[in-house]
Amino acid sequence: MLEIKCPYCGKRSQIEFSYGGDAKLERPKLGTEVSDSEWNEFVYYRNNPRGEHLELWHHISGCRQWFKVFRNTATHEILSTSKIDEKIK
Amino acid sequence: MQKYSIFNLIKNSFSNHQNWDVAWRDPQPKKEYDVIIVGGGGHGLATAFYLAKEHGISNVAILEKGWIGGGNVGRNTTILRSNYMWDANGIFYEHGMKMWENLSQELNYNVMYSPRGIINLAHSDAQLNAYARRGNSMRLNGIDAVMLNKEDLKKMIPFADFSSARFPIFGGLMQPRGGTARHDAVAWGYARQADSMGVDIIQHCEVLGFDIKNGKVAGVQTSRGEIKTKKIGLCVAGSSSILASKLNMKLPIESHVLQACVSEPVKPFLDHVVTFGAGHFYCSQSDKGEMVMGGDLDGYNSYAQRGNLPTLQHVLTEGVAMFPNLSRLKMLRTWGGIMDMSMDGSPIIDKTHIQGLYLNCGWCYGGFKATPVSGLTFAYTIAQDRPHELNSKFRLDRFQKGYLIDEKGVGTKTWIG
Ligand SMILES: Cc1cc2nc3c(=O)[nH]c(=O)nc-3n(C[C@H](O)[C@H](O)[C@H](O)COP(=O)(O)OP(=O)(O)OC[C@H]3O[C@@H](n4cnc5c(N)ncnc54)[C@H](O)[C@@H]3O)c2cc1C
Ligand SMILES: [Zn+2]
Q1: pLDDT in tens, B253-267
Q2: Nearest-CA neighbor of A23 among A11, A9, A86?
Q3: How many interchain CB pairs under 8 A, A with B?
Q4: Sign for the pseudo-dihedral over CA of B192, B197, B199, B200
Q5: What are phi and psi of B99, to 5 degrees?
Q6: What domains can be seen in chain A, in order of their start residue?
Q7: What are phi and psi of B62, to 5 degrees?
Q8: A14/chain B closest Cα distance in angstroms
Q9: Alpha-carbon Rg for chain A in angstroms
Q10: N or C: chain A end with fewer CB closer than 10 Å?
């Protein structure tokens, strides 16, 4: 069982959360000309690293806030968590 | 190679079975090969086999970082089916189903193909309608599909909960030719035949990097030294993104852990493969009597080859909702494997922008059943330097071009599919 520290509620068990994927994806800027390959990169392509991964989680059965989790995908170790607008490493 | 037959069995019994040939050699890597296949799972082994058999290319090495069959091919729940709606998938997997029917003969190895039928249960009118539509699409592609009503199902799976108020059973869709096969036997059968045609199966040999010169493949760096080649086929399933990153490539893939489990063995109880329609749970009974069960991904990026208990609990709760008497069984083993989840749920078998580099990935949790047809079409793609008609839709550029094969319609949240 993963224990995830919600930045608002503290440590809770994994079953209270849902996953939101890679937090480093950057949506192409609004109002600019975006090429097909830029959209393609953003929508479909992932770094998918083995090791440290910054990702979005949702405290869906708790405070319902989205936040960031810095986690190791090879060991499942959670290195840190932070609010969505806080910088993590 | 010694043929496996009743006569050879009798003959060898006189020497207490001490003199059988080894099933495959343990060769030292050569300096150079015509083709190098990375990954000794089902797909890599099958690809090497068809390269030798169909294209006469036998100066081939399979490089496997662990041991053959230690990856997903030895970890899956062995369901075979072609009950797809989209043409690209239906036609491809149906070709695969036909290959399963003769595979034991083709490999001279009993892969224990068991066409016991796969039943998808429907728990609402709408779901039954959706299944009827899927069944019709299947039949248009020449795939067997039968609609079942509640009375049929009561005879076929009497232990299902037909009185459930929450998940009432309305009926189901069945593919009678669907079923199971023995996972290890598939890996071993392909390995033995590929080896007999001259393919070198090199275990404990991890590919660490690639040698690319002027946009062309020149070789690989491995934990056992450099090996030259002009063609490389990547068949590394859940590790695809790691190897792609060594080529400065990104892929439309995420790696996720999928768990499965088996119960203690019990007497014959379930004759078919059955899937729960109100969630994600499926089960079948192995020849040893164990209930083989699986369901959802754990739901977050993972390379750990093991999962967490909440997912298993969730999956088995669904199982008990479907077959209440499962609640009395003890669990024997649980395990996990790393899935190469593609962004539309369908595979990629293609060339790449690097000359001589070929890609086979994106199998999600359904690649075991594709092993023969994936090997056949990937071997063709490598030998001919162009896709076979059967994998002509499984291109890497389909995402950018908008030709997704999104069977489930869940979009790019791969962990939900
Ligand atoms: C729990 C579970 C249940 C499943 N159930 C089903 C099912 O019912 N039906 C179905 O059709 N499919 C199912 N699947 C999916 C199926 O198992 C996979 O899609 C399929 O096995 C993937 O192809 P493969 O056999 O070639 O992969 P693998 O057996 O994983 O082969 C890849 C190989 O590449 C090797 N490798 C990785 N990196 C390197 C490197 N750098 N150098 C050398 N070698 C490397 C690995 O060690 C591995 O042996 C399931 C999977 C799991 C985990
Ligand atoms: Zn919270």
Answers
A1: 999 999 999 999 999
A2: A86
A3: 72
A4: positive
A5: -70, -35
A6: 3-25+43-83 (3.30.2270.10)
A7: -105, 120
A8: 8
A9: 15
A10: C
